């Protein structure tokens, strides 16, 4: 009898009577334009939620990619305590306020989860004389500022990585910002710039055709085995930068989801569980494999710790380059 | 010959009752979102995207691309009837389309626009069919200096044509450049001209500006002129559609020139907006009798429409072959391709010829379906102008404000529309041209990015704009266009100029 009462009490305490459940449409705020990496991420999550009916209320996706994504974060920050605004981004949520005078602080949003890590590689033109990252760095050292690195946006993940490469190797590069990774990819395929640090998905098509080739990837270990992409070589055959002699162990970009600050704990729990279920579907595995990302579900303390470490590393670069906003 | 065989296979895939129905639905939905300013093609396509996740890729792309064609046609409709361009690329259509509709010839204006749009689009598809391999390689030769040269050419061919006082043109153009710089700067990554207003971070949407400048500005003027709408008395007869069709061959040269401009701008890929402005500018430059431009000259409708659609269609080729979206709508479709499991890029033509050629076949059929549908509905649209202004006016105001809100779901944009409306009214009463402002707003930030990227590449040396035959050729053409009026004068063509001297264009 006593045992039953204890069980019943336990049941009451573990399952709160008023667990959050959306009763009106949920807005997915996408901090990139239509077709961007964050847009694909959010729309994939939306399609999985719809297919498996993980949220009963309808889901509406809105693109707010202005100001490198600041538009979306400012918008979400303005809905303090609103459980119906789920914001999708990368590490730009906590990096943007450091490099530009945007009217929001990283704390204005509550972290919900990270679902995946996107990779960075050094790519050169398919006809390039560089076959490995060592000769590439040597050439850059021999002629300072002669090698042109293209990338997406300014003072963002791409330029921070290029700056880190320069710092680690002592070489000097010229960085040319474009509107997005797609543009930087085509400029590289056309031979107008010497290299870029695109994500796998942004250069895959050009690699298939042999117009660009990867030198190394900023992962702690190699990509998992997969089908060959070009000339008998697949993602697994790309050496990690560390093993190829460029001492940067890991540089990755998290795909993150946020709620406005001030939401109740049960709201965070609800979305965390939904996203956890999303990350366990075959469709998610398919998306991650196709875009060569790494599925990694992080939440709570793990996510906070990751964020703190990422921020610390990046802030060092920003400080050195003098990009910190006053 | 291989391409032709593939194309026939593509037609076989597309010519089924199921796919034809999808086409009709796509086109109709497209016209609907095109007619509502602010909703527009990119938003419409994103709204429809979740529905396609469960469809066959080929059916999905037919639905989305047909919606795109429909939206392009819908955008021209509002440009002509209400002076509100639904898409940036249909701004140039308002210059002569709206005056013609106001003169009571709405049917003629709409028919001219739709027919030339259809011809332009089909020419674009034929080009894709014949030249797909070559074009993809050509587009790769374009880097920042070349892009800047193309924008320079677009500015050059448009600037020289204005009849307004040069100082006024300069003022409005500089205002346009200033509006274009608001928001995040690509090159430095800093915010510019936002004055600490959070809503300005995203920049000033071109569509919001245009809806205010043209739509609200026009309404204010109409109200001031005594609340009457000149088109009311115009009779709308379906037979006018056929009459106008017979008229089309007369503009053969204009159509041919505009098609070439459109295809060139589509594959380079500078895009449909630059193409339509340039085509309008050139049509005016080379016309013997310029007096009717800005007052409803048919060539002023045919030229931008043809160029707009041939560029819009050609721009799909770089997207498929290189994986670079030429427009916002193309970007959404590319996102769709990835969700359906296809990788846009050079290998798509080799890996999935069934998909690519099915899409190309659907472009032929989709455009024919779209032209037939819109031509059939011309009398219906034209009749809208017979409704008294006291009813139409408020409806337009409601559409403009809800449209402005929909652009970015921002209430701030509705205030901007009002501001731009007043600016548009002032411009018109003080005889300042609006077109240069619009052109600077659309191409200004792109031209700026391209220029500064070029400067980074060359270490600040301007010689990069003359560094290879391609970029030098385009720059030379741009300079030629810019100083053409001076050349014409020097060559003793004053007689021709005098012909237009007393006339002030009110574009």
TrEMBL record, chain A:
Pfam families: TctC. Gene3D superfamilies: Bordetella uptake gene, domain 1, Periplasmic binding protein-like II. The keyword Secreted does not apply. InterPro entries: BUG (IPR005064), Bug_dom1 (IPR042100). Coiled coil: none annotated. Residues 1-19 form the signal peptide. Keywords: Signal. PANTHER family: BLR4371 PROTEIN (PTHR42928:SF1), TRICARBOXYLATE-BINDING PROTEIN (PTHR42928). Belongs to the UPF0065 (bug) family. This is Tripartite tricarboxylate transporter substrate binding protein.
Automatic annotation (TrEMBL), chain B:
Signal peptide: none annotated. The keyword Nuclease does not apply. It comes from the Bacteria. Keywords: Membrane, Transmembrane, Transmembrane helix. Residues 20-439 form the DUF112 domain. The chain crosses the membrane at residues 20-40, 47-71, 109-131, 138-159, 171-191, 203-221, 261-283, 319-343, 355-375, 387-408, 414-443, 464-487. InterPro entries: DUF112_TM. The keyword Plastid does not apply. This is Tripartite tricarboxylate transporter permease.
